[in-house]
Design goal:
The chain contains 24 helices and eight strands. By secondary structure, the chain is mainly α. Helix 4 crosses helix 15, helix 6 packs antiparallel against helix 17 and helix 10 runs antiparallel to helix 11. The relative contact order is 0.11.
């Protein structure tokens, strides 16, 4: 449920996905709506052809897309068919990171959001760590002491970060951290920071992760944030270093990503999709750009037709390319469309049991991040000013209305990018939320003057003040009463 704050997309190829993509989206919606639970079958291939009214070949292409998303898989036998599965975090994070590659302007934006996600995870881990978590923390402490080489230390450092995120008890933070970490490593490697350039500072960062582990165990938030700040200073130095020769081997990149724990070794088709995507982003290839015919792509990447076609399906699933048939055709770039990745990511989070308070934690963090980002962007004040009349006119409505007004404000402040995509994921989850929660109260009044004050802080280019104004909006943006109250 992407918020309607962006201009309409142009081009029929972008607005009209191919039939197999539409069928895949319909199957995913049926799964997300709880038509079948994990382990249940949606039917045999014959059943699905009849249900969705398509040919067997179209259905099989749609099933390839659904299987790649991790929501279901085809199984043989009497109890087989299309069986609902729990998508893996690695697969979902890889898809999100791949899409974000097209909408994140530069690595500083990526670093800023990843810092905010990590700091929130640390804050919640300190609050929520229980006696049952301590053995895992102690085991990681001992594992780091035993680590004798750089790869081992990187592995433990990554495990520490994952354990802290798990202790936050917020599945959305874990997913976001995996996606942002993967993209950050890929961006650094793409500009010439190969394994040699990443490994040395990464070992120092792993030592800082150990400091964070100790601080979380000891409920020492100040020490935890100080260690996080040092780690992100190192990340910023790595990002600012002069670029070197760009690595030509995706296996090299995959190895680094695996060592630091941001994804397993990708399949061959995923590697090819990653190379095509890297070319599109690095060369700034916009909508309509010709990426090559099937034969040209086979030759360029040294793979079979089947691998190229699977790679193309992966990119089509991200809604960033389309294959044009006939004379003058071939693979062409599309303007990125967040809707498919938003639906798939939301479906994964529902399967992981995401709850309203998880979403509110992330939404609060994003509001502060967007306010700070806006204060560094001269065009942001005008964007926020366009929202003031709409917010001022909001006299009453449901709590969900208030949530969507807030989402709209945050997305407008951010100007899109990674924050905008995550806001759309939140909106998708809220939009399909519990109606009992939605009707629990109504907004009696809103405070447009708070938004006006935020706009002034943004216009003044004052990030700290903009964050504080956002805190005031979050704390006192509305007066809520029960529907039964007079």
């Amino acid at each position: 449920m992407a918020l309607d704050l962006d201009p309409p997309r142009s081009g029929s190829a972008a607005s009209e996905p191919k039939l197999a993509q539409r069928v895949a989206a319909e199957i995913e919606r049926d799964i997300a709506d709880g038509v079948r639970q994990v382990g249940e079958s949606l039917g045999t291939e014959h059943d699905l052809v009849a249900r969705y009214g398509v040919s067997r070949s179209v259905l099989r292409e749609a099933l390839t897309l659904v299987t790649w998303s991790g929501l279901a898989e085809m199984r043989r036998g009497k109890t087989g068919g299309l069986v609902v599965t729990t998508p893996s975090e690695a697969t979902t994070a890889w898809g999100l990171h791949s899409y974000l590659d097209f909408v994140v302007a530069d690595i500083s934006e990526l670093l800023a959001l990843r810092r905010d996600v990590e700091e929130l995870a640390v804050t919640l881990a300190i609050q929520r760590l229980s006696a049952a978590d301590l053995p895992a923390f102690q085991a990681l402490d001992e594992a780091y002491d035993r680590a004798s080489d750089t790869p081992s230390k990187l592995g433990v450092g990554s495990a520490i970060l994952h354990q802290i995120t798990a202790t936050s008890r917020n599945p959305m933070l874990s997913l976001l951290l995996s996606a942002l970490s993967g993209l950050m490593v890929e961006r650094m490697s793409r500009r010439g920071s190969g394994p040699g350039g990443l490994m040395a500072p990464a070992e120092a960062i792993s030592a800082l992760r150990l400091d964070v582990l100790h601080a979380v165990m000891g409920a020492a938030s100040g020490r935890a944030f100080a260690a996080c700040a040092q780690a992100f200073d190192s990340f910023a130095e790595m990002a600012a270093a002069p670029p070197g020769p760009v690595p030509t081997s995706s296996e090299e990149l995959a190895g680094v990503m695996q060592i630091i724990g941001v994804g397993g070794a990708p399949k061959l088709a995923e590697k090819v999709a990653q190379r095509i995507r890297a070319r599109m982003v690095s060369e700034g290839l916009g909508a309509g750009a010709h990426l090559g015919s099937e034969v040209e792509l086979m030759t360029a990447h040294g793979v079979s037709r089947g691998v190229v076609r699977e790679a193309i399906r992966i990119l089509e699933r991200l809604s960033v390319v389309t294959m044009v048939r006939g004379k003058g055709g071939g693979l062409r770039a599309l303007a990125p469309d967040s809707r498919p990745i938003v639906r798939r990511t939301a479906a994964f989070l529902r399967a992981k049991g995401v709850r309203q308070h998880h979403l509110e934690e992330v939404a609060t963090m994003l509001g502060l991040a967007a306010a700070e980002k806006a204060a560094r962007d001269p065009a942001a004040a005008n964007r926020v000013a366009t929202l003031l009349p709409r917010i001022a006119a909001m006299k009453s409505g449901s709590l969900k209305d208030l949530a969507f007004a807030y989402f709209g404000l945050v997305k407008t402040l951010s100007g899109g990018g990674a924050i905008g995509v995550v806001i759309d994921i939140l909106a998708e989850l809220y939009g399909a939320g519990d109606e009992a929660w939605a009707g629990r109260g109504v907004v009696k009044s809103v405070a447009p003057e708070r938004v006006a004050e935020l706009a002034e802080a943004v216009r003044a280019g004052h990030p700290a003040l903009a964050r504080r104004r956002m805190v005031m909006i979050q704390r006192s943006g509305a007066v809520v009463r029960s529907p039964a109250a007079p």
